Here is the input.
Amino acid sequence: MSELDPVHEALERLEWQDSKQEQTPQSRLAAVTRRTALTGGAAGMAALLLQACGGGSSNTTSQAQGSPASGVFGSSGKPKFVFVNHVTTNPFFVPTKYGADDACKLLGCTYQWTGSQNSNVNEMVNAMNTAVTGGADGIAVALVDNKAFNQPTDAALKAKIPVVAYNADAQGNSRLAYIGQDLFLSGQEMGKRISQLVPSGDVALFIATPGSANIQPRIDGAQDVLKKKSGITTHVIATGAAVPAELSTIDSYAVGHSSTKGMFAVDAGSTQSVAQTIQKHNLRSKGVKGGGYDLTPTTQKLLAGDQIDFTIDQQPYLQGFFPVVELYLYKASGTLSGIAEINTGLKFLDKNTVKPYNTTKTRYEGTSSQPGVNKA
Here is the structure.
């Protein structure tokens, strides 16, 4: 018998029991989580989340402690975690916040979303220091600077507050784990796709905040490939952290550089703005190619409408969900378990494969606040 068989058997029993009960948002979320855990192939995670949802547990002590999860992990209290973000109001992180929220509901903990609205590293460092002095039970931080977060990370670890990185990582930082995309590799893969779409000519590469560790590795990876392609000339343009400014900058560039053959971006706001600019000026009729990263409702619709050639999904929901799970388990296990590097993936979407994203609304992509996957 494989180690997964008991989990499969438990799932069958729980789903049979669920079928006899009234469907609620909570029960649907539990069902989705079971299937997600199994498809990931992690038997321990599946059992963990099943029990955290209350499936089949008869431990009255855990209920008395306030969370079914406490009976599974032997934990006590209600941990409080802090997410330090670089663009707290950016639409890209809506599903990230839903992921953190859902994990907290499962595990009986809470989290705070803080940092900076416009990639101000000093504001982020201050938010992180506040989390340390405030006695947070764990910190998840987007390490968008290669050095600025080293001291607050060390201070947190010295205070026995675990720190994980999400969305962006920094070499030399003593964080315990990174949950997010392999950024440089994804940039290289983007560069390969660009060279296929634009064999020669001027290519514009847009980046919100040059030097930021969450996006600079992507543009570095793309240029690593493109500089080896004769006939392609790249131009890097900074667009700013705010979406309206990004759109204005990209629109102005397109107007002033009519010979550009391709327009590509390495962040969500710039990618959406590239698609909007190409549509506005009817650049597809002139053979202009476009693409970038991440999914916003506008990007999804314009990709489906063939205004750009691709976007890359890095699963932002998981970048909120898994940091909470790791921090919780690290605390519950007394530092013995819970910490793991997680690559949230590299998934190219085109005008056909993006269709399911446009025909459904879901917390997983930030298009709905409701649990599950619902028809748009």
